[in-house]
Write a sequence for this structure.
């Protein structure tokens, strides 16, 4: 995660925190119970989906970098053997 992406994540989690605080307020007051529970489920579910997507993207990027490094290393060795 780079610096610009971190700013977006901080803003997103601040919005999620406010939504959860509002949902807890609704739940503790006893009014609109289903609205509070729906907000909690949506926020938690959306966060779970985003984190798993981010982890998958990071894993794909790691695999791509490993394949680029290994293909570059093989190409360098092949070029050295051609020169002999």
């Amino acid at each position: 995660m780079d610096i610009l992406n971190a700013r977006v994540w901080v803003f997103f989690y601040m919005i999620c925190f406010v939504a959860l605080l509002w949902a807890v307020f609704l739940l503790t007051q006893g009014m609109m119970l289903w609205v509070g529970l729906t907000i909690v489920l949506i926020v938690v579910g959306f966060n779970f989906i985003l984190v798993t997507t981010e982890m998958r993207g990071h894993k794909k990027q790691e695999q791509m970098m490993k394949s680029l490094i290994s293909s570059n290393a093989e190409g360098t060795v092949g070029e050295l053997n051609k020169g002999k």
